[in-house]
Amino acid sequence: MSASVLFDAPGPRGRRRMAISNALGAVVVLGILAWVLVVLSGKGQLAAGLWRTAVDPRAWQYYYLPGLQNTLRAAAFATVGAVVFGILFGMGRLSHLRAIRWVSSLLVEFLRAVPVLLMMVFLNILFGVTLRGVVADSAFTAVVVALILYNGSVIAELVRSGVGSLPRGQAEAGVSLGLTRGQTLRSIQLPQALIAMLPAVVSQLVVVLKDSALGQLIGYKELLRSAQILASGGGNPLQALFVAAILFILLNVVLSWVARRLARRLSSRTSGKTATGSGIGPGIAVPRTAPGVTAGG
Amino acid sequence: MAGFFDVLASYDVLGAFWVNVQLTVWGALLALVLGTVLAVMRISPLLSLQWAGAAYVNIVRNTPLTVIMTFLVLAVWTQLSVTLSRDFTTNFFLFAVLGLGAYHAAFVCEAIRSGVNTVPVGQAEAARAIGLPFLSAARIIVLPQAFRGAIAPLGNTLIALLKNSTVAAAASVSTETSSVMKTMIEIRPDYLWEIFFTFAIGFVILIIPIGLATTWLSNRLAVRR
């Protein structure tokens, strides 16, 4: 429903009133911003020196860019791993063997309910203490594995619902061609489900990127942690965090845009609906009732 | 196993979960109020309010919660010396609630907007036909139906909020689950698996009823059309 259904197309008087209210609304919004700036300058936070150290080329060279690189590295590994995990366990949940189906369902539902941060804290100690020497960089590995486990289980649901949202005729056609049910799944249903879920996987990347910032709490030097370290040297947390937040926002806005473009482009390529989800950060990523995503388990 | 129970008994595990539950309840209330206001702004006829609402949602949704929490403590508390409570611990608790509420308000707003989408156009037209101005139409006709249609996504947001309450660790709330679990497994790594599964299963137990309740409620309250 477009928002405009809620109100009439305004007449001349309405338009005048709306113009006035708009101006008022703009004044209020700008007023809040101005008030924030006044308070900030009152606290001396607008001092050029604080901002200069926050956007200094050396700050970029030694803090933001390495931090960004670590964030992207963790996100890249985690995304690839999560897709593989998701396809494996998504197929597991569709298996005709009851045991495989149950084990996959149990694991997926469990991993979706446990906070990512708890997994990271646990894995960090597991890799750092118990498996010391086997795993080189415990914080990095903990961040990546925790992100794979959580986002992989979300993607497993996407696979399952993607296959579920295909028309029944697809499977029937496969079986009538003489394929087994497993072959039908692999060569007819899964490819379509994968294309349909591609936009959702891209928007899941937003969640992966945001969740990688949890690595800060276990000492992984991603973007947020680098900004914090920079701030503790420069005494300018407000400014350094501001820069880090802008970087995160830009990155994620671009990803969301790519996801929307992909969804529009691919919507005609499959029999199922292409799934779009909005990431919510360490939590449920795709609403269970989103188009193409049936109510999960 | 007896040794593990001694470890368990020497920490206030239930108390830690209680802190997360409290964070969730207050955070959810704040998010609901703020999110509803944002949703009304986004569907309002005023362009300036639409833009402000959209800007808030897009900025907050794309910022990691960890950044928001760290920002509140490091920048707002340390630098701007804004204090929410005289009590040191309560102060951090309130900052965490503020962060959780502000972050999830963006998702509540989108959930309510998705609920508004379930309201048939005719309802809004009927509201206009009997002469209701925008705010009355939204308050009396559209929002009550939108809430009923938005229960499932709101439930998902609540579940996410409960899990995200562990991020209060970034706002120096040291009594909540992830901080307590961190202390426990750092001191007793020999009981690593037992401790982790205790906390993990605690969350499973908390989350399953929410999921079941929202599914049941959304079926029960759905407006039959």
TrEMBL record, chain A:
The chain crosses the membrane at residues 20-40, 74-94, 106-127, 139-159, 193-218, 238-259. One of its GO terms (biological process) is amino acid transport. Residues 271-297 are annotated as: Disordered. It is found in: Cell membrane. It comes from the Bacteria. CDD domains: TM_PBP2. GO terms for molecular function: transmembrane transporter activity. The keyword Transmembrane helix applies. Residues 68-259 form the ABC transmembrane type-1 domain. Keywords: Cell membrane, Membrane, Transmembrane, Transmembrane helix, Transport. It is a multi-pass membrane protein. Its main location: membrane. Pfam families: BPD_transp_1. GO terms for cellular component: ATP-binding cassette (ABC) transporter complex. Belongs to the binding-protein-dependent transport system permease family. This is Amino acid ABC transporter permease.
Automatic annotation (TrEMBL), chain B:
Keywords: Amino-acid transport, Cell membrane, Membrane, Transmembrane, Transmembrane helix, Transport. Belongs to the binding-protein-dependent transport system permease family. HisMQ subfamily. GO terms for biological process: amino acid transport. It is a multi-pass membrane protein. This is Amino acid ABC transporter permease. It comes from Xylanimonas allomyrinae. GO terms for molecular function: transmembrane transporter activity. Signal peptide: none annotated. The keyword Chaperone does not apply. Its main location: membrane. PANTHER family: AMINO-ACID ABC TRANSPORTER PERMEASE PROTEIN YHDX-RELATED, MEMBRANE COMPONENT OF AMINO ACID ABC TRANSPORTER. GO terms for cellular component: ATP-binding cassette (ABC) transporter complex. InterPro entries: AA_ABC_transptr_permease_3TM, ArtM/GltK/GlnP/TcyL/YhdX-like, MetI-like, MetI-like_sf. The chain crosses the membrane at residues 23-41, 62-80, 92-112, 191-217. The keyword Membrane applies. Residues 17-214 form the ABC transmembrane type-1 domain. It is found in: Cell membrane.
